[in-house]
Amino acid sequence: QVQLLESGGGSVQSGGSLRLSCATSGYTYSRYCMGWFRQAPGKAREGVALIHSDGSTMFPNSVKGRFSVSQDNAKNTLYLQMNSLKPEDTAMYYCAAQPGCDVFRLSAPDFPVWGQGTQVTVSS
Questions:
Q1: Closest CA to 20 of 101, 73, 74, 83
Q2: In whole angstroms, what is the distance from residue 17 CA to residue 114 CA?
Q3: CB contact at 8 A, 49 and 35
Q4: What pLDDT digit, counting tens, does each position of 51-108 carry?
Q5: Distance (Å, rounded) from C-alpha 110 to C-alpha 97?
Q6: What does the alpha-carbon distance between residue 68 and residue 90 come to, in Å, rounded to a whole number?
Q7: Is residue 88 classed exposed, middle or buried when 0-12, 13-18 and 19+ CB atoms within 10 A define those classes?
Q8: Phi, psi for residue 9 in degrees, rounded to 5
Q9: CA 4 to CA 41: how far, in whole Å?
Q10: From CA 18, how far away is CA 49, in angstroms rounded?
């Protein structure tokens, strides 16, 4: 059974940086996608980073150039590096997994496995 556990959230001032981690366990798929999503109160869940097992990545325009995603297969950990943070980046951040990666897109319904989330708060 695949399990995901996020960490690294916190409070930071505008312009600051944070690195989120997502520890994975029970994952034996050679082909997969991992995504980072966020959800602010009263808003829909939004994808902010996607990485394929082949290393391909995808970002929406809202975070492109500020966020990066990487994975350390030896540590079974996914990372989201967030730089130049803005107050509008404030949200609960989730990592998610899509075994097989049938569709390479930042769409939450495509991901069947989710972590519990970690809160990011950016103050102005």
A1: 83
A2: 24
A3: yes
A4: 999 999 999 999 999 999 999 989 999 999 999 999 999 999 999 999 999 889 999 9
A5: 9
A6: 17
A7: exposed
A8: -70, 170
A9: 22
A10: 15
